[in-house]
């Protein structure tokens, strides 16, 4: 025959409402600390990706274009010359495998050929404010 536990013994084996609320509050505090520590990291990651795109993929693609064609893309051709044939002899692209993607904020990268200095171009991102020629522009 089974023995039944007394009501006092049954209560002693479980958690009280206060204990459960205390655990929920502690978990909430810990989650809040983690979220505040990681909240600024997403913007840092976007800046790092933009710098990586500029110094890596785009600069390399522009250099490959120059090596094949014998000149840098013109201002009129821009970065589109890296993904679509601009109709120039020697073009062996596309030079970007995944196409020309915008910066992490959704703005197209800017390309400018300096016509006064040979082999000089500027490629940049508008940065978080999505406006060029401001303090947060990102250069390689």
Summarize the structure in words.
The protein is mainly α and 140 residues long. It has a domain at 47-124: Glycoprotein, Type 4 Pilin (2-Layer Sandwich). Helix content is 41%, strand content 6%. It has helices at 7-12, 17-38, 41-69; strands at 110-113, 121-124. It has a two-stranded antiparallel sheet. The longest helix has 29 residues, at 41-69. The model has no long low-confidence stretch (mean pLDDT 86).
Could you write a compact summary of the structure shown?
The protein is mainly α.
What descriptors fit this protein?
140 residues, two-stranded antiparallel ribbon, Glycoprotein, Type 4 Pilin, elongated, mainly alpha, single chain
Radius of gyration: 29 Å
CATH topology group of one domain: Glycoprotein, Type 4 Pilin
Shape-level CATH architecture of one domain: 2-Layer Sandwich
Q: How confident overall, as mean pLDDT?
A: 86
Rough outline: elongated
Task: List the helices and strands in order.
Answer: HHHEE
Report the CATH C-level class of one domain: Alpha Beta
N-C termini distance: 81 Å
Oligomeric form of this entry?
A: single chain
- Fraction of residues in helices? 40-55%
The low-confidence parts are: none
Largest sheet: 2 strands, antiparallel
């Amino acid at each position: 025959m089974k023995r039944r536990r007394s009501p006092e013994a049954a209560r002693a084996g479980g958690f009280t409402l206060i204990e459960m609320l205390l655990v929920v509050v502690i978990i909430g505090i810990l989650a809040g600390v983690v979220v505040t520590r990681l909240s600024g990291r997403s913007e840092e990651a976007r800046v790092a990706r933009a710098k990586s795109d500029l110094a890596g993929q785009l600069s390399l693609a522009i250099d490959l274009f120059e090596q094949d064609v014998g000149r840098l893309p013109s201002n009129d051709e821009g970065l589109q010359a890296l993904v679509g044939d601009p109709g120039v002899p020697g073009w062996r692209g596309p030079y970007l495998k995944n196409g020309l993607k915008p910066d992490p904020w959704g703005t197209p990268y800017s390309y400018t050929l300096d016509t006064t200095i040979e082999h000089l171009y500027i490629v940049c991102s508008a940065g978080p404010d999505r406006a060029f020629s401001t303090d947060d522009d990102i250069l390689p």
